[in-house]
Write a structure and sequence with these properties.
about 400 residues; mainly alpha; 20 helices; membrane; transmembrane; transmembrane helix
Length: about 400
């Protein structure tokens, strides 16, 4: 076993413990609200199952050899049942009774924008405001016009399955989705119709598609790439981490004319999108005090966020093993600001106030799952994905 593999095994082992830890936080927090249930016993039992899961997986793989048709049947059956459950949750849960406002923040933001108003002063059903960048509003248009913002998660899963099937063999897709579906953090996103994890999944899918069909083809169309990158960056600031890490090195390799086309198209499209929102701002005071940056940086110190957004540019240029360790580096860069913000809140307010009273939004801890799960397939479950 090479030293690099040993290092990857240790890093991904830590990532798996993180995966278990975050899901246990979700399970403990929300079972604590159910009368007659011992949240600690349930959480410990769940943690033990997840700790044993890699060994159970290897054991099952050695004893049960599924034929391709059987695996395909298992895949479609599990996916169909999951989609039925998601549709049920989307249409049966009274979202106005929820103490989470991601869905209504997106909805009131879209409504304000479509009605020619400044979206960042609109208040949702909990008197909160949206932190969505303009690109995320556009993504939300489809479920909004379909009549339910919660359909965003359903549409995201369908698209995710398509992209994963293009990129991974079926066995890896089944394992990827299995890890996602046993995650309380994922089901919380579905239950409250949150756009956070979905946003990161969209970026993952974009990168997997680029990698599948070779980035040099895309760089031959720099204008199109500039538009796509600008659009994704204008969904949520932190998505700059995986995008910069993936594209920076190749950007410096292309011709100057292609660089200029990419930058021009990206800046032009981004400026237009921002203008369509800012044109409705009533005055400078409103712009400075009601904007998405204030809310997106509320959970983590601004200095940590800035540093985490700068690092991927440098790492992309100097890291020779980037292609083999892309997912791991992405996860580490996501973890850097998020864990610091989490531990600061723990220090200031204690465990109960931070977790139970929501001094820290723990969905930020799970937002990196789209990039964490592929890294777990490499060594924890003995399944090695292709690059990036």
């Amino acid at each position: 076993m090479s030293n690099i593999f040993k290092l990857n095994l240790k890093i991904n082992g830590f990532f798996y413990l993180y995966f278990i830890f975050v899901n246990c936080l979700f399970l403990y927090k929300y079972t604590e609200r159910i009368a007659g249930i011992n949240e600690l016993i349930i959480t410990v039992f769940y943690a033990i199952i997840l700790l044993l899961l890699p060994y159970l997986f290897r054991l099952a793989s050695s004893f049960f050899k599924l034929a391709p048709k059987q695996l395909n049947y298992l895949f479609w059956t599990g996916l169909s049942l999951t989609l039925v459950l998601m549709f049920f949750i989307v249409f049966k849960v009274d979202k106005y009774a929820l103490m989470a406002d991601r869905w209504s923040a997106m909805q009131v933001g879209i409504e304000a924008w479509l009605n020619g108003k400044y979206p960042y002063t609109a208040t949702d059903h909990l008197d909160g405001r949206t932190s969505n960048f303009p690109g995320l509003f556009i993504i939300g248009f489809i479920p909004y016009f379909l009549g339910n913002i919660g359909l965003l998660q359903v549409l995201n899963l369908i698209l995710l399955v398509v992209v994963l099937r293009l990129y991974f063999p079926l066995k890896k897709v089944v394992l990827f989705l299995s890890l996602l579906f046993i995650s309380p953090a994922f089901w919380w996103e579905v239950y409250v119709s949150s756009d956070l994890m979905t946003n990161i999944f969209i970026v993952l899918m974009f990168i997997l598609l680029i990698d599948k069909f070779q980035p040099n083809i895309i760089f031959k169309k720099p204008i199109l790439l500039g538009v796509f990158l600008s659009f994704l960056i204008l969904t949520r600031g932190i998505v700059l981490i995986p995008l910069a890490l993936y594209f920076t090195k190749d950007f410096f390799k292309i011709q100057l004319s292609s660089k200029l086309k990419l930058m021009f198209s990206g800046l032009t499209f981004g400026s237009l999108l921002i203008f369509l929102v800012l044109m409705n701002v009533p005055d400078q005071y409103t712009l400075l005090n009601y904007n998405p940056l204030l809310l997106q940086t509320s959970q983590v110190p601004t200095s940590m966020i800035i540093l985490s957004l700068i690092l991927p540019f440098g790492l992309s240029l100097i890291n020779k093993g980037l292609q083999k360790n892309y997912f791991e580096i992405c996860v580490l860069l996501f973890l850097f600001p998020i864990l610091i913000g989490f531990f600061i809140k723990l220090y200031l307010y204690g465990f109960n106030a931070t977790l139970i009273d929501s001094r820290f939004d723990i969905s930020y801890l799970s937002m990196l799952f789209p990039f964490l799960i592929p890294s777990l397939l490499k060594s924890v479950f003995n399944l090695t994905p292709k690059k990036p």
